[in-house]
């Protein structure tokens, strides 16, 4: 009797084992089918995206000025792959190790924050448009094009940082022209201003006034903002200065004979780059460039894996580790918009001088997916 029961149990065990194997095989087959489908869709997007960036404005260059290259090897590799896929030029320049042309023109500028704009001016003649980016940024979606953000009616294109209201110093688009070159060189020569200021945020603070001068803001308004800058003794005072420059730019009407088309400032989230921490490291298909991804940054550990170029994908997803991490940090536009709205409310509490009613970013947030 016991032998019969043992045989039955053994047979039942084998059936369960076979059933389990069948379930695993079926699951693996489903996963493989889905992966093949995703690969086919990605291949289609990749082929489309390679043809979507038409060279409407001539040669495009990407310029990165970085001192500790090993610190940014992942993001720089990503930029190289992106530039190669688009046919863009790429210039990686190390401070104080520039070529002789840069040394002759910019050697007297000691501050790296200002020297980098001088060096960018020297590199301008190699392309028609130059995209200046920080080394701790990278393109998260390869289907986005630099050409999307070029306005041929302008010489220099800046964007406003979402959380601070500043015209961003860390990334801009600049045309190869004498006017643009003079603009960058003039900005680079203003490092001496920092000796007169207590809270200046390096080249960022100087840039706010530089933009106002470039578009022809009234001298009295410039003097008012300069006084706020010079007298700032804390971040509260500094953001009062930023609020002054922001209001001045919004309210400015160019005088007769002065062209406002020298400098364009894109609205918050209307530019090509945003800070990744605004959404807790999450991104969407709408994003182009994410900023603030240093090697020691915890966000970067979620992203960077193998610095090898993609062969059949339309995004920089190849840079991320596989599994829940990648899937968990790519979100819908609606989710990102909610996170950005929360970030705006938080920033408005800290910087009320920048987030005034007529300059609210809420409309920009609501149109994030457009």
Automatic annotation (TrEMBL):
<dbReference type="InterPro" id="IPR029044">
    <property type="entry name" value="Nucleotide-diphossugar_trans"/>
</dbReference>
<dbReference type="Pfam" id="PF03314">
    <property type="entry name" value="DUF273"/>
</dbReference>
<keyword id="KW-0732">Signal</keyword>
<dbReference type="InterPro" id="IPR004988">
    <property type="entry name" value="DUF273"/>
</dbReference>
<protein>
    <recommendedName>
        <fullName>Nucleotide-diphospho-sugar transferase domain-containing protein</fullName>
    </recommendedName>
</protein>
<feature type="signal peptide">
    <location>
        <begin position="1"/>
        <end position="33"/>
    </location>
</feature>
């Amino acid at each position: 009797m016991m032998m019969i029961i043992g045989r039955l149990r053994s047979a039942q065990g084998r059936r369960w084992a076979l059933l389990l194997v069948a379930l695993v095989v079926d699951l693996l087959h489903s996963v493989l089918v889905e992966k093949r489908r995703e690969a086919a869709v990605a291949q289609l997007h990749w082929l489309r995206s390679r043809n979507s960036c038409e060279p409407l404005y001539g040669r495009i260059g990407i310029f990165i000025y970085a001192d500790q290259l090993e610190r940014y090897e992942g993001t720089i590799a990503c930029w190289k792959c992106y530039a190669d896929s688009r046919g863009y030029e790429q210039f990686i320049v190390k401070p104080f190790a520039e070529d002789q042309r840069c040394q002759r023109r910019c050697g007297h500028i000691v501050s790296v924050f200002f020297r980098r704009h001088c060096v960018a001016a020297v590199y301008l003649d190699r392309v028609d448009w130059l995209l200046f980016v920080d080394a701790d940024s990278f393109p998260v979606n390869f289907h986005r094009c630099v050409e999307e953000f070029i306005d041929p009616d302008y010489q220099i294109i800046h964007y406003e940082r979402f959380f601070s209201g500043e015209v961003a110093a860390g990334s801009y688009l600049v045309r190869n022209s004498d006017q643009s070159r003079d603009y960058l060189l003039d900005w680079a020569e203003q490092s001496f201003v920092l000796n007169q200021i207590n809270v200046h945020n390096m080249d960022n603070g100087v840039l706010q006034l530089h933009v106002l001068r470039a578009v022809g803001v009234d001298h009295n308004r410039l003097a008012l903002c300069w006084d706020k800058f010079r007298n700032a003794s804390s971040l509260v005072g500094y953001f009062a200065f930023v609020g002054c420059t922001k209001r001045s730019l919004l309210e400015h009407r160019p005088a007769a004979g002065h062209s406002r088309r020298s400098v364009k400032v894109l609205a918050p989230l209307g530019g090509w780059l945003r800070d990744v921490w605004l959404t807790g490291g999450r991104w969407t298909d709408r994003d182009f460039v994410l900023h603030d991804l240093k090697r020691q940054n915890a966000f970067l550990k979620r992203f960077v894996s193998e610095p090898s170029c993609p062969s059949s994908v339309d995004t920089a997803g190849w840079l991320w580790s596989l599994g829940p991490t990648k899937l968990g940090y790519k979100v819908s536009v609606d989710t990102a918009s909610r996170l950005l709205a929360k970030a705006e409310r938080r920033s408005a509490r800290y910087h009320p001088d920048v987030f005034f009613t007529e300059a609210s970013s809420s409309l920009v947030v609501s149109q994030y997916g457009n």
